[in-house]
Design goal:
heterodimer, A: about 290 residues, mainly alpha, MetI-like fold, 2 domains, about 75% helix, about 0% strand, B: about 325 residues, 12 helices, flat
């Protein structure tokens, strides 16, 4: 075996170190490109849209004149649709998660449901729009209404709620539950008094993330038949509607410069809502984690 | 035994019997409630199966009607897609090439950037930097796609057009680049999870043999996390194929059978949006095309999702 000289070793070592530095530089560049893009996006939107933001923008209906157009109808539509989606998805999703984690016997059936939910989470959102159009709008005859839109989005975010809630429930220590059973509690009593309170922060975080996904969805609602130009506020569950992302899409697609400014202003409102919700999720998780003492 | 004692005993029995009945009643009610709750929860859980079944049935039902009017050979053989014109052609290929152009382009951006970011976060970043970077990347992942569409059409496209005159207002390139930025956080966070799951002892072993940080990252950690990383790639690709708003806004609505990134194209998802916005009457062949295209989309993403789960499973078996 040939031994290498000290000089040769130093040379190779230097090469390896230089390669390491170059790679480190590449990694840093990759991360900074992501951050730079985020910064460019935010700067672009803020510099375009901030001038248009005013009370009138929030309270006006859409108009042919960009300066007079506002997001009143879209904002109300978003609030209605997302509230329905949130309540339905939360109820059904947490129920499903409890069943899967606490009731279902481990076996082929349970793992089939798990696989199915994981796949549903990966179905393109536009396919849910087609489902909503056929099931809610046509077969159940709800029309292209607020309630049909809400239910479509509920199905879309259901897998997110189920997966997050399942993880939160699985993290509850089994000693806690066994203590409950030892005291003679039934399964439901253990779930309601011990498991759910303990898992609540995790469930809540998942629910907020699901709702923030629903707020930003555009494609499924367009396919389902939401309008793009709505000069009225939705007045009930069967009213037709539009939502904020569709309004932004509509303004972005128009050739006039003035509507692009409106789109940017709409995006600012949308991002503020989303960031507030994400911050809320972080805050709630933090608060409840501190408050839980067992 | 005297008479009085017997009477008092009988009374006690009666009391016991009452108590027994009462307990039995409570227990009966409790069991009823328990099983009622169990069934309600069971219904919640199998709703997910109904959803999948609903998707498949709805898509198949209309797609079968579509194929009664259009032969499957034309669908898979023709390279013209003009269902909204007077002379109708139903060859799916222009939509497939449009979809592949944008999604593969997006992956070319997202894979290297996402993987390098993941390596940085998992191997290089100090704890505090990691704690700041991860939430920022999550923000990037949480931005609605319509916002990325705005960014692509009104920010990225003008920059690209100032570089080259060949690039049209609507083009696949801008959509692909922005979509790459959109799925970057997904690639990076899923790959990072896979790398974090590699046992620390493997790294320490490599360091003890005198490996540099680069060698540990690329020759030990990445190979060990490979199946998780592959799963992340496939999942991101499936996300890119199903992505709608960026391509609808920035890539155009012209089903061209081309891989030229500078000209307007149309993806499968963008076509579905186009028909939905055009208010094609129910029952017409134009209307049925969206179900057929939706079915193709659903199966493409389903296969990729199953594939990615297969990889994740293999990965778990190795390290638990």
């Amino acid at each position: 075996m040939a031994l290498i000289t000290d000089v040769a070793f130093q040379k190779i070592m230097r090469k390896r170190k230089i390669r390491g530095y170059v790679f480190y530089g590449l990694c840093l560049t990759a991360v900074s490109i992501g951050l730079l893009m985020l910064a460019a996006l935010l700067y672009n939107v803020l510099s375009e849209g901030l001038t248009r933001l005013s009370w009138g923008f929030i309270s006006n209906f859409p108009s042919r004149f960009p300066e007079r157009a506002g997001i009143h109808a879209a904002l109300l539509g978003s609030i209605y649709v997302v509230s329905i989606a949130g309540v339905v998805a939360f109820t059904l999703g947490v129920g499903a998660a409890i069943y899967l984690e606490e009731y279902a016997k481990k076996g082929p059936f349970a793992s089939f449901i798990q696989l199915n939910i994981a796949n549903l989470a990966g179905v393109p959102s536009i396919v849910y729009g087609i489902l909503g159009l056929e099931i809610f709008v046509r077969i159940m005859e709800m029309g292209k209404s607020v309630i049909a839109g809400g239910l479509t989005l509920a199905l879309l975010v259901l897998p997110i709620v189920i997966i997050a809630s399942s993880e939160a429930i699985r993290a509850v220590p089994s000693s806690l539950k066994e203590g409950g059973f030892a005291l003679g509690a039934t399964r439901w009593q253990v779930v309601r008094r011990l498991t759910l309170p303990y898992a609540f922060p995790g469930i809540l975080t998942g629910a907020i993330l699901a709702v923030s996904r629903a707020v930003g969805e555009t494609a499924p609602l367009i396919v389902m038949g939401a309008l793009t130009f709505v000069p009225f506020a939705p007045d009930g569950p069967l009213s037709r509607f539009t939502v904020l992302p569709i309004q932004i899409f509509n303004w972005t697609s128009r050739p006039q410069e003035g509507f692009h400014v409106n789109a940017a202003a709409g995006i600012i409102v949308l991002l503020v809502v989303l960031l507030t919700m994400n911050a809320l999720a972080v805050f709630l998780r933090h608060k409840f984690q501190k408050g839980t003492r067992w | 035994m005297c008479w009085a004692e017997t009477v008092s005993l009988m009374g006690q029995d009666k009391q016991n019997l009452g108590l027994l009945q009462k307990t039995f009643g409570i227990r009966w009610k409790r069991n009823l409630l328990e099983s009622a709750i169990k069934y309600v929860l069971y219904l919640c859980a199998i709703l997910s199966i109904f959803t999948t079944a609903g998707i498949i049935l709805v898509l198949l039902f209309e797609a079968i009607q579509f194929f009664q009017e259009v032969s499957i050979f034309e669908f898979l053989g023709s390279t013209k897609w003009t269902p909204l014109f007077a002379s109708k052609h139903f060859g799916i290929w222009p939509l497939v090439t449009g979809t592949l152009l944008t999604s593969v382009g997006a992956m070319l951006v997202a894979l290297p950037l996402g993987l390098l970011s993941a390596i940085y976060l998992a191997e290089y970043a100090p704890r505090r930097v990691r704690g700041t970077l991860k939430p920022i990347l999550e923000v990037l992942a949480g931005i609605p796609t319509v916002v990325y569409g705005y960014f692509a059409l009104l920010f990225v496209t003008p920059i690209l057009r100032s570089i080259s005159d060949e690039i049209m207002v609507f083009n696949g390139l801008s959509a692909a680049l922005v979509m790459g930025i959109m799925i970057l956080p997904m690639v990076s966070s899923l790959s990072e999870d896979a790398m974090q799951a590699v046992p620390i002892s493997l790294r320490e072993g490599a360091y003890a043999l005198g490996a540099t940080k680069l060698e540990v990252a690329t020759k030990v950690v990445v190979p060990a996390a490979m199946s998780g990383i592959v799963a992340a790639f496939i999942l991101s690709m499936s996300r890119a194929i199903g992505e709608t708003m960026i391509v609808t806004i920035a890539a155009g609505q012209n089903p061209n059978f081309t891989f030229n990134p500078f000209v307007p194209i149309e993806t499968m998802t963008a076509f579905i949006v186009q028909v939905s916005m055009g208010d094609a009457p129910t029952g017409t062949i134009e209307f049925k095309t969206i179900f057929t295209v939706g079915l193709s989309l659903f199966f493409m993403t389903l296969v990729m999702n199953l594939l990615s789960q297969y990889f994740v499973k293999r990965f778990r078996e190795v390290y638990e």
